[in-house]
Every structure is written in C-alpha cells, then in structure tokens.
Design brief:
- This protein has 531 residues and is α+β, with helices and mostly antiparallel strands.
- It folds into 2 domains: 1-245, Beta-Lactamase (2-Layer Sandwich), CATH 3.30.450; 363-528, Heat Shock Protein 90, CATH 3.30.565.
- It is 51% helix and 21% strand.
- The chain contains 10 helices and 19 strands.
- It has helices at 2-74, 85-94, 123-139, 184-196, 247-320, 326-358, 370-387, 407-424, 455-458, 480-490, and strands spanning 98-105, 113-118, 151-157, 160-171, 174-182, 203-208, 214-216, 226-230, 239-244, 366-368, 391-396, 399-400, 403-405, 430-438, 441-447, 495-499, 505-512, 519-520, 527-528.
- Strand 14 and strand 15 (441-447) form a beta hairpin.
- The chain is rod-shaped.
- The protein starts with a helix and ends with a strand.
C-alpha cells in the first residue's frame, strides 16, 4: 500500500512538469502559427495591391494605344491635302485625348512637318511643331530597329508636359514619321477620373510626376501599405500609387486577432496550470484527510478500548468475589460507572459528529437558562476531575439573559471543553469555567493551567481530525473541538481560543442572546468542588 502511494505521488509530480512543458510548447506553436498566419495575410495584401496597381496602370496604356491604333487606321500621309480629315470627323468620340496628328518628312535634312491636322488650330499647334522639330525628334531614337512600330515619348519640354505617339511609314521611297499629340491636361482631367474613380471603395489611387508631386488623386497615408508602379509605355515618367482601402482595417483586424489569440492561449495555459495546481492541492488534501481519518479510527478505537477494558476488568473482579471489602467494591462500581459514562460520551460525540458530517444535525431550540445547562455539564465532569486532583471552578454572572438553545448540545460542548482541558493540561490545579453576558452574546469560557497552544496550532485546532502538538502523548479522536465549533455556530456564535495568563489556554464559545428578556441565573454564585 505504501509502495503504491509512493508510486502515485511520483507519477503525479512527474506529470505536473510534463503538462506544464506541453502547455508551453503548445503556446509557442500557437504564437508561431499566429505570426506565420499574419505574414501570409500581409503577403496576400501586398500581392493583391500589386496586382491592382498593375491592372490600373495597364488601363491607361491600353486606352492610349487604342486611340493610337484608331489614328493609324484613319490617317494617311499619301495625300497631304486630305491629311487627317477622316480622323477629325470621329476624333471627339474615338480619340478624345488626341489633340493633333502630324507627318514629318524624315527624308529631308530639315525634317519638316509636311502635314498637320488639329482639333483646335491655334498658336499652340505652332509651338508644338517647333518643339517637335527642334527637341523631340532628337529623343525619339529614329534609328531604332523598331522604328516602324508604335512607340511613345513622354517628357517635359519648354515647361510643358507632352505625350506623343509615333511610328514610321514609307511612301514612294520617302520616310514619313506620323506623330500623335496627346493632350496631357485632358488625360488628367477627363481620362484619369474615368479610369481611377472606383465606386467600390476598395482602393485609393493617385498619380505623381517625376518629382513626386501629385498630379491626380488624394494624398495617400504614409503609414498604410502603398505600392507604386510607373506606366509602362505611355506616361512612363509618372507613377501610379495604389493603397488598398481595406489594408489598414485588415492590418488592425489582424493585430486585434493576434492579441486575442495570445490572450486566449495565455489564459488557456494559465487555466490548465491552475487546474493542475488545484488537482495537486486537492489530492494532497485528500491524502491528508485520509491519513487523519485513519488516525481518527485508531484513536477512537483506543478511546473505546480503554474504558471497555476497565469495565471488563473491574466487572470480572466483582464477579469473581475476590473483592475483600465493601469500600473496594464501591470503588470498583464507581470506576465502572464513570468509564461507562465516558464511553457513552465518546459514542455520543462520534454519532453527533457523523450527523454534522452528513449535514443532518438537528437542534431543538427552546427557551433555557444557560447557567443551569452549564452547571449540569460541569457536575458531569467533577468525578473525573476529582480523580485527577483538579478543582473545577464555576463562575456564573449574577444575571444572565435567557436565550433559545439546544440544552443537550450545549452540555456536550461544555463537557468537550472541560474534557479537553483535563487531557491536555496535566498537572494543573484548577480549571475555571465562567458564563457571562458579552454585548449581544453569552460567553462560556473554559480556562486551564496547561502549557498553552502554539500560535500555528490555534488557527486549525477547531478543524476536524486536527489535534494540537501536545507536550505529552495524549490520545483523542480529534472531533471534540470541531463539534464544539459547529454547535457554537449553530447557536449564532463562534468558538475561539486564546492565551490565558499567567499560563494555559482559554477556550470560549459565544451564544446569541435573546434581546427581549433577561432573567436571574438560578446559580448566581461561584461554586467549586474540593480537590
């Protein structure tokens, strides 16, 4: 049995660190998974934002190239007189951002503009023509192998921003360069709102120039996730910036979720550890209670065996007829009676305590005089006190209020206190029992001249199966004071222990007094029995 108990304790103490380590490992895995999930979410947001930026930038390039292709299908440099007439008829609808179309003769050294068609003829057309001939042609890389394919030039010339599309055509052995002039302000004011004013509120967009100045759109938050991409073929000097409108909310939601996950994991770990601690404490308490019950059974068995042995021994002596005198016979009979009373009191204690443990203790409260009840209890203990040469001094206050109490229960409580004093205070000359009013209570106190009770034992001396550390070996059941406490609390009072001066202990119980009446005690004077 002892080996099994040791094995159980060993398993328990090994299990606790193992469970704690498992909880810590699971917590670490949860934290790691939470951070990994957050990184995946951030990566998904970045990828979604980048995809959206590419898609929005491609919208503009696609729209500009569609207009360039429309111009290429409608404009021919073969007939300078009819140059661009067919295009001008549909220009507002098919090419809204194209302002003018020009043809440049690349075969001549002067590279003159030989044809021009404009939607709004004026001085701006002449200004653009001079800028084209003197500045732009140098940047168009006319000797490029792909010169016959559609290309674009974007830049600032003379303080104005220009976007032109150009490709080379040959006619009758001459090289002509077709140039399409896109009106950049019209692109910004007319085309950008059409392309980038999304109604789904999923993103915010702006366009900035090469110097970082906003050309279109609102400022974007610097703290949020913002990705930029330059226009690939058209306005390649400018950059389109995209910020997911939900990125900040998503980041905040991710942060809140991570905090909650950490809190929940931490709380779960704390609950598991707390549960293990509670289980360990409960197991320790159960083991302690089991040991106390074992001691209780052993002590009660001894307590029952002692008076039974005495009763049997002296009964056999009387039965054998070997008692020489009537005095001896009377003495033996008194011992048998007192030990029988002691045995009965012990059995009553055990039965009453069993009722308390089962919650079936019932008290019959009647109007009683507490002085008379205590007097009867003290008289029941005098014979044993006389045998131990201890004087029982009973002091009753002159006027004690009547109260409702269970007379038998109070007698048991007082007998237990006096019996406790007789057992644990050997060598004392007297035990003082007093009854006096105390505010709204009646106090019954038993004071001995024993060695006293250590401070650490006073807090638990009224607990069941607990016994103080006596300087001499004294056997007992460990339920007497627990029963006293229960009786006192059932009467609306309490049970306490304190140090008595000059030495000894003072046990006291209080009973709630009836405030409506006050009667004189039937035993108002102090009384004592001679040693």
């Amino acid at each position: 049995m002892a080996d099994r108990a040791r094995r159980e304790r060993l398993v328990t103490f090994l299990l606790l660190p193992g469970v704690v380590v498992a909880v810590l490992v699971l917590t670490g895995i949860m934290f790691r998974s939470s951070f990994a999930l957050e990184r995946l979410r951030e990566q998904s947001v970045v990828e979604a934002t980048l995809l959206l930026a590419n898609e929005k930038a491609d919208r503009l390039d696609k729209r500009i190239i569609e207009q360039d292709n429309a111009v290429a299908s409608l404009v021919s440099s073969e007939d300078p007189e009819a140059f661009g007439k067919e295009w001008l008829e549909v220009a507002p609808i098919q090419t809204p951002t194209v302002r003018a179309v020009l043809a440049v003769d690349l075969s001549s050294d002067q590279r003159e503009v030989v044809a021009l068609a404009s939607r709004a003829p004026g001085v701006e057309d002449e200004r653009f023509r001079r800028t084209l001939v003197h500045s732009m042609l140098r940047d168009m890389k006319l000797d490029h192998p792909a010169r016959e394919k559609l290309r674009h030039l974007h830049g600032t010339y003379g303080g104005s921003n220009y976007l032109v599309s150009h490709w080379e055509r040959r006619h009758e052995g001459r090289r002509h360069l077709l140039v399409v002039w896109h009106d950049v302000p019209r692109i910004v004011h007319d085309l950008f709102p059409t392309l980038y004013s999304d109604t789904d509120n999923q993103s915010r967009v702006n366009v900035v120039d090469g110097h970082g100045r906003i050309v279109f759109g609102p400022p974007l938050s610097k703290g949020g996730l913002t990705l930029g991409r330059q226009f690939e073929t058209t306005l390649y000097k400018w950059r389109l910036n995209v910020a997911m409108a939900s990125a900040e909310e998503l980041a905040a939601a991710v942060a809140r979720r991570r905090v909650w996950e950490m809190v929940l994991v931490g709380l779960s770990g704390a609950v598991v550890i707390a549960g293990l601690i509670v289980i360990m404490l409960a197991a320790a308490r159960e083991r302690k209670l089991s040991n106390l019950k074992s001691d209780f059974v052993a002590n009660v068995s001894h307590e029952l065996k002692t008076p039974l042995s005495l009763v049997r021994m002296f009964g056999e002596l009387l039965q054998s007829g070997r008692v020489e005198s009537d005095a001896k016979r009377t003495q033996y009979l008194q011992i048998i009676v007192s030990e029988s009373e002691r045995l009965g009191a012990l059995i009553e204690n055990v039965l009453d305590f069993a009722k308390v443990e089962r919650g079936k203790a019932a008290y019959e409260f009647v109007d009683s005089n507490v002085g008379d009840v205590v007097t009867r209890a003290v008289e029941a203990c005098r014979l044993r006190a006389d045998r131990q040469n201890v004087v029982l001094e009973l002091a009753l206050a002159p006027a004690l209020p009547s109260t409702k109490l269970d007379e038998r229960a109070i007698e048991i409580a007082v007998i237990n206190l006096v019996d406790n004093a007789l057992k644990y205070a050997p060598g004392g000359e007297r035990i003082a029992i007093s009854v006096q009013p105390l505010d709204r209570f009646i106090e019954i106190a038993v004071t001995d001249q024993g060695p006293g009770i250590p401070i650490e034992d006073r807090k638990r001396v009224f607990e069941r199966f607990e016994r103080g550390k006596a300087p001499v070996a004294v056997r007992g059941s460990g339920i007497g004071l627990a029963l006293v406490k229960h009786i006192a609390e059932a009467h609306g009072g309490s049970a306490t222990v304190a140090v008595a001066l000059p030495q000894g202990s003072r046990f006291s119980i209080t009973l709630r007094a009836d405030p409506k009446s006050s009667v004189a005690s039937s035993a108002p004077r102090p009384s004592q029995a001679p040693a």
